[in-house]
Amino acid sequence: MATLPEVSAIEQAALRSDRFRLAREGDWKRLEAIVSRIEKGQLRRLSDEDVLALPVLYRTVASSLSIARETSLDSATLAYLESLTQRAWFQVYGPRQSLWTWLGRFLGGGWSAAVRAMSLDVAVALAVMVAGVAVGWLLVASDPEWYFSLVPGQFADARVPGASREVLQGTLFGNDGKDPMSAFAAYLFSNNAQVSILAFALGFAFGIPSLMLLVQNTATMGAMLWLYNGQGLLIDFAGWLAVHGTTELFAILLAGAAGLHIGRAMAFPGDKSLLQATAEAGRRASLVMAGVVLMLVVAAILEAFARQLIDNTAGRFTVGGFMLVFWLAYFFAFRGRNDGAASP
Fold first, then answer.
1. What torsion do the CA atoms of 306, 288, 222, 152 make, to the nearest 10 degrees?
2. What is the pLDDT of residues 16-29, one digit of tens each?
Protein backbone atom coordinates (compact mmCIF):
# COMPACT_ATOMS: atom_id res chain seq x y z
CA MET A 1 0.00 0.00 0.00
CA ALA A 2 1.27 3.46 -0.93
CA THR A 3 2.23 5.74 1.93
CA LEU A 4 0.77 9.21 2.38
CA PRO A 5 3.83 11.04 0.93
CA GLU A 6 3.73 8.76 -2.12
CA VAL A 7 0.01 9.38 -2.66
CA SER A 8 0.57 13.10 -2.33
CA ALA A 9 3.35 13.04 -4.95
CA ILE A 10 1.18 11.09 -7.40
CA GLU A 11 -1.72 13.48 -6.89
CA GLN A 12 0.53 16.49 -7.44
CA ALA A 13 1.94 15.00 -10.64
CA ALA A 14 -1.56 14.26 -11.91
CA LEU A 15 -2.71 17.77 -11.02
CA ARG A 16 0.31 19.31 -12.75
CA SER A 17 -0.38 17.23 -15.87
CA ASP A 18 -4.08 18.20 -15.88
CA ARG A 19 -3.27 21.91 -15.54
CA PHE A 20 -0.66 21.70 -18.28
CA ARG A 21 -3.14 19.97 -20.59
CA LEU A 22 -6.05 22.30 -19.85
CA ALA A 23 -3.90 25.39 -20.49
CA ARG A 24 -2.86 24.20 -23.95
CA GLU A 25 -5.46 21.68 -25.04
CA GLY A 26 -7.32 24.18 -27.20
CA ASP A 27 -4.31 24.62 -29.50
CA TRP A 28 -3.71 20.88 -29.59
CA LYS A 29 -7.27 20.10 -30.61
CA ARG A 30 -7.31 22.81 -33.24
CA LEU A 31 -4.05 21.54 -34.75
CA GLU A 32 -5.34 17.97 -34.68
CA ALA A 33 -8.51 19.00 -36.49
CA ILE A 34 -6.55 20.88 -39.18
CA VAL A 35 -4.09 18.00 -39.71
CA SER A 36 -6.91 15.44 -39.85
CA ARG A 37 -8.72 17.38 -42.57
CA ILE A 38 -5.52 17.71 -44.62
CA GLU A 39 -4.86 13.98 -44.26
CA LYS A 40 -8.36 13.29 -45.60
CA GLY A 41 -7.66 15.42 -48.67
CA GLN A 42 -9.82 18.35 -47.54
CA LEU A 43 -7.14 21.04 -47.71
CA ARG A 44 -9.29 23.24 -49.94
CA ARG A 45 -12.03 23.27 -47.34
CA LEU A 46 -9.79 24.84 -44.73
CA SER A 47 -10.23 28.53 -44.03
CA ASP A 48 -7.39 30.96 -44.68
CA GLU A 49 -7.07 31.44 -40.93
CA ASP A 50 -6.50 27.71 -40.37
CA VAL A 51 -3.94 27.48 -43.15
CA LEU A 52 -1.99 30.43 -41.77
CA ALA A 53 -2.28 29.08 -38.23
CA LEU A 54 -0.91 25.63 -39.13
CA PRO A 55 2.84 26.40 -38.80
CA VAL A 56 2.23 28.50 -35.66
CA LEU A 57 0.22 25.74 -34.02
CA TYR A 58 2.86 23.19 -34.99
CA ARG A 59 5.56 25.18 -33.20
CA THR A 60 3.28 25.62 -30.19
CA VAL A 61 2.66 21.87 -29.91
CA ALA A 62 6.36 21.13 -30.45
CA SER A 63 7.13 23.49 -27.57
CA SER A 64 4.51 21.74 -25.44
CA LEU A 65 6.13 18.40 -26.22
CA SER A 66 9.53 19.74 -25.16
CA ILE A 67 8.14 21.00 -21.85
CA ALA A 68 6.26 17.75 -21.28
CA ARG A 69 9.45 15.77 -21.68
CA GLU A 70 11.43 18.02 -19.36
CA THR A 71 8.80 17.94 -16.60
CA SER A 72 8.13 14.20 -16.98
CA LEU A 73 4.40 14.46 -17.53
CA ASP A 74 2.25 11.34 -17.84
CA SER A 75 3.04 8.92 -20.65
CA ALA A 76 -0.38 9.30 -22.29
CA THR A 77 0.13 13.04 -22.79
CA LEU A 78 3.64 12.49 -24.10
CA ALA A 79 2.47 9.84 -26.58
CA TYR A 80 -0.37 12.08 -27.80
CA LEU A 81 1.93 15.07 -28.30
CA GLU A 82 4.60 13.01 -30.06
CA SER A 83 2.06 11.58 -32.49
CA LEU A 84 0.47 14.95 -33.17
CA THR A 85 3.84 16.63 -33.66
CA GLN A 86 4.94 14.00 -36.18
CA ARG A 87 1.71 14.29 -38.16
CA ALA A 88 1.88 18.09 -38.18
CA TRP A 89 5.56 18.11 -39.17
CA PHE A 90 4.75 16.02 -42.22
CA GLN A 91 2.06 18.49 -43.29
CA VAL A 92 4.21 21.58 -42.64
CA TYR A 93 7.60 20.41 -43.86
CA GLY A 94 7.01 17.05 -45.55
CA PRO A 95 6.75 16.38 -49.31
CA ARG A 96 3.93 18.18 -51.00
CA GLN A 97 3.05 15.36 -53.40
CA SER A 98 2.36 11.66 -53.30
CA LEU A 99 4.50 9.02 -54.95
CA TRP A 100 2.07 8.72 -57.85
CA THR A 101 2.00 12.49 -58.31
CA TRP A 102 5.80 12.61 -58.36
CA LEU A 103 5.92 9.70 -60.82
CA GLY A 104 3.44 11.44 -63.10
CA ARG A 105 5.54 14.61 -63.09
CA PHE A 106 8.72 12.57 -63.57
CA LEU A 107 7.48 10.64 -66.61
CA GLY A 108 5.35 13.53 -67.84
CA GLY A 109 8.30 15.74 -68.72
CA GLY A 110 10.58 16.12 -65.70
CA TRP A 111 12.96 13.33 -66.69
CA SER A 112 13.20 14.31 -70.35
CA ALA A 113 13.71 17.98 -69.44
CA ALA A 114 16.59 17.03 -67.13
CA VAL A 115 18.23 15.03 -69.93
CA ARG A 116 17.88 17.91 -72.40
CA ALA A 117 19.39 20.27 -69.83
CA MET A 118 22.50 18.05 -69.97
CA SER A 119 22.68 17.89 -73.78
CA LEU A 120 26.32 19.00 -73.89
CA ASP A 121 27.31 16.35 -71.36
CA VAL A 122 25.34 13.70 -73.27
CA ALA A 123 27.14 14.64 -76.48
CA VAL A 124 30.57 14.44 -74.81
CA ALA A 125 29.74 11.12 -73.16
CA LEU A 126 28.52 9.73 -76.50
CA ALA A 127 31.75 10.76 -78.22
CA VAL A 128 33.77 9.11 -75.45
CA MET A 129 31.77 5.88 -75.75
CA VAL A 130 32.29 5.78 -79.53
CA ALA A 131 35.99 6.36 -78.94
CA GLY A 132 35.98 3.51 -76.42
CA VAL A 133 34.53 1.12 -79.00
CA ALA A 134 37.20 2.19 -81.49
CA VAL A 135 39.95 1.75 -78.90
CA GLY A 136 38.77 -1.77 -78.04
CA TRP A 137 38.59 -2.77 -81.71
CA LEU A 138 42.02 -1.36 -82.57
CA LEU A 139 43.74 -2.89 -79.55
CA VAL A 140 42.60 -6.45 -80.27
CA ALA A 141 43.17 -5.96 -83.98
CA SER A 142 46.81 -5.12 -83.26
CA ASP A 143 47.25 -7.89 -80.67
CA PRO A 144 44.50 -10.50 -79.97
CA GLU A 145 45.90 -11.01 -76.46
CA TRP A 146 44.25 -7.71 -75.55
CA TYR A 147 40.92 -9.49 -75.94
CA PHE A 148 41.38 -11.39 -72.68
CA SER A 149 42.20 -8.17 -70.84
CA LEU A 150 39.20 -6.31 -72.19
CA VAL A 151 36.49 -8.99 -72.14
CA PRO A 152 35.54 -10.45 -68.73
CA GLY A 153 35.71 -14.23 -68.48
CA GLN A 154 31.96 -14.65 -67.97
CA PHE A 155 31.35 -12.90 -71.30
CA ALA A 156 34.07 -14.70 -73.22
CA ASP A 157 33.13 -18.43 -72.71
CA ALA A 158 33.31 -19.81 -76.29
CA ARG A 159 33.62 -16.33 -77.75
CA VAL A 160 37.39 -16.07 -77.97
CA PRO A 161 39.86 -15.30 -80.77
CA GLY A 162 40.24 -18.32 -83.00
CA ALA A 163 36.69 -19.59 -82.47
CA SER A 164 35.06 -20.93 -85.62
CA ARG A 165 32.14 -19.29 -87.37
CA GLU A 166 29.85 -22.15 -86.32
CA VAL A 167 30.74 -21.70 -82.65
CA LEU A 168 30.22 -17.97 -82.72
CA GLN A 169 27.01 -18.31 -84.70
CA GLY A 170 25.74 -20.78 -82.09
CA THR A 171 26.05 -18.10 -79.41
CA LEU A 172 23.72 -15.83 -81.40
CA PHE A 173 21.01 -18.16 -82.68
CA GLY A 174 19.14 -21.29 -81.70
CA ASN A 175 17.99 -20.07 -78.29
CA ASP A 176 14.33 -19.47 -79.11
CA GLY A 177 13.26 -22.77 -77.59
CA LYS A 178 15.16 -22.32 -74.37
CA ASP A 179 13.92 -20.86 -71.13
CA PRO A 180 14.32 -17.09 -70.75
CA MET A 181 17.76 -16.31 -69.40
CA SER A 182 16.48 -14.53 -66.31
CA ALA A 183 19.55 -15.36 -64.23
CA PHE A 184 21.87 -13.94 -66.88
CA ALA A 185 19.65 -10.88 -67.20
CA ALA A 186 19.82 -10.38 -63.44
CA TYR A 187 23.60 -10.54 -63.63
CA LEU A 188 23.70 -8.03 -66.48
CA PHE A 189 21.35 -5.70 -64.60
CA SER A 190 23.60 -5.87 -61.54
CA ASN A 191 26.77 -5.32 -63.58
CA ASN A 192 25.39 -2.44 -65.63
CA ALA A 193 23.80 -0.88 -62.56
CA GLN A 194 27.22 -0.86 -60.91
CA VAL A 195 28.79 0.71 -63.99
CA SER A 196 26.07 3.36 -64.13
CA ILE A 197 26.27 4.20 -60.44
CA LEU A 198 30.06 4.42 -60.57
CA ALA A 199 29.95 6.62 -63.67
CA PHE A 200 27.58 8.94 -61.80
CA ALA A 201 29.30 8.82 -58.41
CA LEU A 202 32.78 9.48 -59.81
CA GLY A 203 31.60 12.73 -61.35
CA PHE A 204 32.77 14.66 -58.28
CA ALA A 205 36.37 14.35 -59.60
CA PHE A 206 35.54 16.82 -62.39
CA GLY A 207 33.97 14.00 -64.43
CA ILE A 208 37.28 12.52 -65.56
CA PRO A 209 36.84 9.10 -63.87
CA SER A 210 33.32 8.90 -65.31
CA LEU A 211 34.67 9.29 -68.83
CA MET A 212 37.41 6.74 -68.20
CA LEU A 213 34.82 4.26 -67.00
CA LEU A 214 32.79 4.78 -70.17
CA VAL A 215 35.87 4.08 -72.28
CA GLN A 216 36.61 0.91 -70.34
CA ASN A 217 33.05 -0.37 -70.60
CA THR A 218 32.66 0.28 -74.34
CA ALA A 219 36.12 -1.06 -75.17
CA THR A 220 34.75 -4.48 -74.23
CA MET A 221 32.05 -4.07 -76.85
CA GLY A 222 34.63 -2.96 -79.41
CA ALA A 223 36.67 -6.11 -78.78
CA MET A 224 33.65 -8.35 -79.27
CA LEU A 225 32.61 -6.51 -82.41
CA TRP A 226 36.09 -7.21 -83.81
CA LEU A 227 35.77 -10.89 -82.90
CA TYR A 228 32.46 -11.41 -84.71
CA ASN A 229 33.53 -9.28 -87.64
CA GLY A 230 36.43 -11.67 -88.22
CA GLN A 231 33.92 -14.46 -88.98
CA GLY A 232 31.56 -12.31 -91.04
CA LEU A 233 28.98 -12.09 -88.24
CA LEU A 234 29.21 -8.39 -87.42
CA ILE A 235 25.64 -7.59 -88.54
CA ASP A 236 24.21 -10.60 -86.71
CA PHE A 237 26.08 -9.70 -83.53
CA ALA A 238 24.94 -6.09 -83.79
CA GLY A 239 21.34 -7.31 -84.06
CA TRP A 240 21.84 -9.67 -81.11
CA LEU A 241 23.17 -6.73 -79.11
CA ALA A 242 20.61 -4.19 -80.32
CA VAL A 243 17.59 -5.85 -78.67
CA HIS A 244 18.60 -4.73 -75.22
CA GLY A 245 21.71 -2.73 -76.07
CA THR A 246 19.94 0.36 -77.38
CA THR A 247 18.30 0.74 -73.97
CA GLU A 248 21.19 -0.49 -71.86
CA LEU A 249 23.88 1.58 -73.57
CA PHE A 250 21.60 4.63 -73.56
CA ALA A 251 21.23 4.22 -69.80
CA ILE A 252 24.99 3.98 -69.30
CA LEU A 253 25.40 7.01 -71.57
CA LEU A 254 23.02 9.05 -69.39
CA ALA A 255 24.73 7.89 -66.20
CA GLY A 256 28.11 8.99 -67.54
CA ALA A 257 26.62 12.29 -68.68
CA ALA A 258 25.11 12.83 -65.22
CA GLY A 259 28.51 12.31 -63.59
CA LEU A 260 30.15 14.62 -66.11
CA HIS A 261 27.43 17.22 -65.52
CA ILE A 262 28.30 17.39 -61.83
CA GLY A 263 32.03 17.48 -62.54
CA ARG A 264 31.59 20.25 -65.09
CA ALA A 265 29.55 22.30 -62.62
CA MET A 266 32.33 21.95 -60.07
CA ALA A 267 35.05 22.89 -62.54
CA PHE A 268 33.13 25.73 -64.21
CA PRO A 269 30.50 27.13 -61.80
CA GLY A 270 30.19 30.34 -63.84
CA ASP A 271 28.49 33.24 -62.09
CA LYS A 272 27.14 30.98 -59.33
CA SER A 273 28.97 29.92 -56.21
CA LEU A 274 30.59 26.49 -56.31
CA LEU A 275 28.10 25.14 -53.77
CA GLN A 276 25.06 26.47 -55.61
CA ALA A 277 26.24 25.27 -59.04
CA THR A 278 27.06 21.80 -57.69
CA ALA A 279 23.75 21.53 -55.81
CA GLU A 280 21.72 22.43 -58.91
CA ALA A 281 23.67 20.02 -61.09
CA GLY A 282 23.32 17.31 -58.45
CA ARG A 283 19.54 17.66 -58.31
CA ARG A 284 19.27 17.49 -62.09
CA ALA A 285 21.68 14.55 -62.33
CA SER A 286 19.91 12.60 -59.57
CA LEU A 287 16.64 12.95 -61.47
CA VAL A 288 18.31 11.51 -64.56
CA MET A 289 19.77 8.65 -62.50
CA ALA A 290 16.31 7.70 -61.25
CA GLY A 291 15.36 7.19 -64.90
CA VAL A 292 18.57 5.28 -65.59
CA VAL A 293 17.48 2.63 -63.10
CA LEU A 294 14.16 2.32 -64.93
CA MET A 295 15.95 1.92 -68.26
CA LEU A 296 18.20 -0.80 -66.87
CA VAL A 297 15.15 -2.72 -65.66
CA VAL A 298 13.66 -2.50 -69.16
CA ALA A 299 16.98 -3.64 -70.67
CA ALA A 300 17.12 -6.64 -68.33
CA ILE A 301 13.60 -7.67 -69.36
CA LEU A 302 14.50 -7.38 -73.02
CA GLU A 303 17.66 -9.39 -72.41
CA ALA A 304 15.79 -12.14 -70.57
CA PHE A 305 12.87 -12.52 -72.95
CA ALA A 306 12.89 -10.62 -76.24
CA ARG A 307 16.39 -11.57 -77.34
CA GLN A 308 15.75 -15.25 -76.67
CA LEU A 309 12.31 -15.35 -78.26
CA ILE A 310 13.34 -13.47 -81.40
CA ASP A 311 15.82 -15.71 -83.21
CA ASN A 312 16.50 -13.69 -86.35
CA THR A 313 18.58 -10.61 -86.99
CA ALA A 314 15.86 -8.58 -88.71
CA GLY A 315 13.45 -9.02 -85.81
CA ARG A 316 16.13 -8.10 -83.29
CA PHE A 317 17.00 -4.94 -85.20
CA THR A 318 13.30 -4.08 -85.30
CA VAL A 319 12.95 -4.30 -81.51
CA GLY A 320 16.25 -2.52 -80.85
CA GLY A 321 15.50 0.17 -83.41
CA PHE A 322 12.05 0.76 -81.97
CA MET A 323 13.48 1.18 -78.47
CA LEU A 324 16.14 3.59 -79.74
CA VAL A 325 13.57 5.71 -81.57
CA PHE A 326 11.33 5.64 -78.51
CA TRP A 327 14.07 6.91 -76.17
CA LEU A 328 15.24 9.57 -78.62
CA ALA A 329 11.69 10.80 -79.14
CA TYR A 330 10.97 10.85 -75.42
CA PHE A 331 14.12 12.69 -74.43
CA PHE A 332 14.53 15.14 -77.28
CA ALA A 333 11.11 15.57 -78.93
CA PHE A 334 8.60 15.05 -76.12
CA ARG A 335 7.43 18.18 -74.31
CA GLY A 336 5.15 17.25 -71.45
CA ARG A 337 3.10 19.39 -69.12
CA ASN A 338 5.78 19.00 -66.45
CA ASP A 339 8.65 19.88 -68.75
CA GLY A 340 10.05 22.36 -66.29
CA ALA A 341 9.94 20.01 -63.33
CA ALA A 342 13.62 19.24 -63.57
CA SER A 343 14.80 22.82 -63.45
CA PRO A 344 16.52 23.64 -60.17
1. -80
2. 667 777 888 888 89
